[in-house]
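Working notes for the structural subgroup meeting. M.R. asked for a predicted model of this chain before we commit to crystallization trials. I am recording the input and output together here so anyone reviewing the notebook later can reproduce the run.

Input as submitted:
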Amino acid sequence: KRERGKKMITKLPESQGSVLGVKISGKVTTEMEDDLIKTCDKVIQAHGKIDVLVFLDEHVRWGLKAGIEDLKWAMKHIKDIKKVAVVADSPFYKWYVALDKPFGKMVGIEEKYFKPQDLADAWSWIKE
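Returned structure, recorded in token form:
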């Protein structure tokens, strides 16, 4: 059951400076994606670059429009992103990060996959 008004993208309290951590659950709508983009833009404006930790629960999924907005933002801000830590318990996201890592490296982005039980390691890595 989904609670009405429940936030599906939550800024994590460990976020500070150029490091933004978010937990994402449920279906990501375009409104949620817009809010996330605005938050990322504020961090980039304040710090020049951004490091992102994304914690995906097992029920996360993107609506098509939200996914397209996410991709457009990422391509526009490719030079503003330093590191991306993906925290998930999913063979798909592990595979996705492994597949995307060489492309990220070419444009100067470090990417790493972590399991939920390794969240503390993910925070340590993203804050290095």
